[in-house]
Amino acid sequence: MSDKNIYWTHNTAYHNWILKHAENRNKVLDVGCGDGLLVQRLSRVCGCVKGIDSHIHSIEKAKKRLCNTANVSTVAVGFEDYEAPSDSFDLIVFAASLHHMEQEFCIKKAKILLAPNGKLLIVGCAKPRGFIDWFVEAMRFIPARIGSFFHGETKGENIGVPTVKPSIYLSDIRNLANYQLPDSKIRRGLYYRYLLTWIKPN
C-alpha cells in the first residue's frame, strides 16, 4: 500500500503494542476492523487474519486495502451476529471497537471463540468518573496533544469509519473484567485509551 493509506490516530498509536502480543499467533480475529489497516499489519506477523465489521463502507475499504494480501479475509458482519466454532482463534483483538457494542455479551462471546491459551487484547475507550479519572485526564492532556501534533494525527471522520463516544466508565470495565476475565491486566494508555490483556486458561 502507498504511504497515503497509512495514517496515525489515537487508535493506531497502539498498533505496535498489539503487534508485539500478536507475533506468531496463527488464527487471529480483528473485531471492528474498519478499513483494514490493523489487519494488514497483523498479516505480517500472524498466520491467518480475519477482519469483521458491520459497517459496509468500512469493509469495502478494507477489501480494497487487502486485495493483494493472501493470508487475510474480511466479512461484513457485527461481532454479535458473527458465527464461528468454539476455540476458533488464538488471538482476538478489539481495537477501539468494543465500546460500539454490548460489551458484556461480546466479552463472553470472545471467551468462547478463543482457544485455550488464546489471548484477548482490548484497546478500549471509557468515560472518566471521579477524581482519579479526571486527574489522569488532565495529566495526559498536554503530552497527548504533543504526540498528536508530532505524529500528524488524522481525525476519525477523515478516515471514513464510524466513531462513537464511550457510554460506560473505566471502573465498569474493571468490574466486568474482574468478573468475566480473571487475572486479566488493565492499564491506562496515554491517548485516552485503556489496554486490556487476558489469556484463556488451558
Structural overview:
- This protein has helices at residues 15-22, 37-42, 56-65, 103-113, 130-151, 156-159, 170-180, and strands spanning 27-31, 48-53, 72-76, 89-95, 114-124, 185-188, 194-199.
- By secondary structure, the protein is α/β, with parallel strands linked by helices.
- The chain has a 7-stranded mixed sheet with strand order 3-2-1-4-5-7-6.
- Helix content is 36%, strand content 22%.
The percent range for helix content is 25-40%
Question: What is the percentage of strand-forming residues?
Answer: 15-25%
Number of helices: 7
**In total, how many domains does the architecture comprise?**
1
The total beta strand count reads 7
Amino-to-carboxy terminus distance: 39 Å
* Residue-averaged pLDDT: 93
In short:
The protein is built from seven helices and seven strands, in the order αβαβαββαβαααββ. The chain has 202 residues and is an alpha/beta fold. A seven-stranded mixed sheet has the order 3-2-1-4-5-7-6.
